[in-house]
Amino acid sequence: MDVQFLLLPTIPCSAGYLYEQSDIEGAFPMNDLFINLLRGSVSSVMNIIILFTLTKSKFGRTGTVIFAVIVFVVNMAGTIWFYLYGDLTALSRFNLLMFVAVGLALKPLTKISFMQLCFNVLTTLNISMMIVVLSFHLSRFFPAPQYAHTGIRLVLYIAVIFLFQRNLLPLYRSIVSNWPIFSGLVVCIFLNLAYYFYLSDDIQATLITFKLPLFLLVTLSVAAYGTVFYSLKKIKEMYALETENLKILNDKGLIHQAAIKYEKFANYDTLTELPNRRFFFERLDRVVAEREANTSKVAVLYIDLDGFKDINDTYGHEFGDRVLITVGNRLLKCIRETDFVARLGGDEFAVIIHDFEDVTSAENLAKRIHKMLQEVMFIDSIECTVNSSIGIAICPDTGKVSETLLNNADSAMYEVKRNGKGRIGVFVNP
């Protein structure tokens, strides 16, 4: 026998499914009862799944499943009871109140705030009402609308859940985290849809009579949600790009700092922070090359501290290091801005002097250095003194090559040490 789909009055539950009324008071015909309970089961289960999909649980999948089963059993028991007594208006109110109660009861099981949970409940109700509108009207294109209605509704629910799980869930949770910004939109969508669902005594007639306004409302609601998701995705992409750019700039800054640090390690003494032997020869090569162009003189002073080994042996190497730092600072105070001082290693230092008038000018600078180094040092309340032996070599008089100049200044310094230390000597070609 053909089963005809009668356009009978229906009442929605808060979970979003329709109950077709019979044309008699009281209980429904068995066939109507079965199909409506089937549709109610689909909506009940799917709405709980959507709510739990949107809401992050504290207790994992097992706790979620147990809670969902309990809600489903209570929901279906109430649905059957109201169906048997034919009170569909009371059923609609019962399901709405129950879904709100489920949302409230879900709070201890979640990691979100109460307002965020309310946001999820409203979103679930909005999805449910939009699916009801679409499934009801799409089912009328099929030979058995009452069964197509249930099937289409199931497919739409599964599609929504899949879409959230696959693409939208991270974006949606960002929206929930910023619920004060988006709550107005969600509430407006709910109020507009609920106006047709919960203020009507004949929902099926309402769905047919207000078909175009409802389709327009569903379209605008989907567009509103889509715009929010799309905008948030673009904002996240822009933020990620900006973060990546900042990271690149930060990496460039770190590389630049590392390069500066490497250059410092390569060219400067780590103890005194004076230029090291390598940097000294680079500067001396350049100064000698420039001297050939302007025929000026260049002097190299080779400075060795007298008695520094005794200071190390008496007070320790840490104390000796501080003496070397003090010596380096005093050398910097003695020389001109155009001159160059470096630590060659150990207790040996060197100074490059250029643009001076004659050998006497270089000797006077060496005497000033010698005198300042002899001044008393106070380090950790300990008084100590150092002396120095200084050798001088003049370019081009005693050599025109950097290494030769330094060797000649070194030779003059050792000649001073052999003859009693603590003096200044000038290298003279044999």
Give a brief rundown of this model.
Helix content is 67%, strand content 11%. With 430 residues, it is α+β, with helices and mostly antiparallel strands. The chain has 2 domains: 10-241, no CATH class; 277-426, Alpha-Beta Plaits (2-Layer Sandwich), CATH 3.30.70.
Descriptive key words:
Alpha-Beta Plaits, alpha+beta, two-stranded antiparallel sheet, 2 domains, disordered N terminus, 430 residues, 13 helices, 67% helix
Q: What's the topology here?
A:
Layout: E1 10-12, E2 18-20, H1 30-54, H2 60-85, H3 88-105, H4 114-139, H5 145-177, H6 179-198, H7 203-209, H8 211-267, H9 277-294, E3 298-306, H10 308-315, H11 317-334, E4 340-345, E5 348-354, H12 359-374, E6 377-379, E7 382-384, E8 387-395, H13 402-418, E9 424-426
Parallel strand pairs: 8-9
Antiparallel strand pairs: 1-2, 3-5, 3-8, 4-5, 6-7
Helix pairs in contact: 1-2, 1-4, 1-5, 2-3, 3-4, 4-5, 4-6, 4-8, 5-8, 6-8, 10-11, 11-12
Describe this structure in words.
Helix 2 packs antiparallel against helix 3. Strand 1 and strand 2 form a beta hairpin. This protein is of the alpha+beta class and 430 residues long. The chain contains 13 helices and 9 strands. A 5-stranded mixed sheet has the order 4-5-3-8-9, with helices on both faces. The chain has a two-stranded antiparallel ribbon with strand order 1-2. The N terminus is likely disordered. It starts with 9 loop residues before the first strand and ends with a strand. The chain has 2 domains: 232 residues, no CATH class; 150 residues, Reverse transcriptase/Diguanylate cyclase domain (Alpha-Beta Plaits).
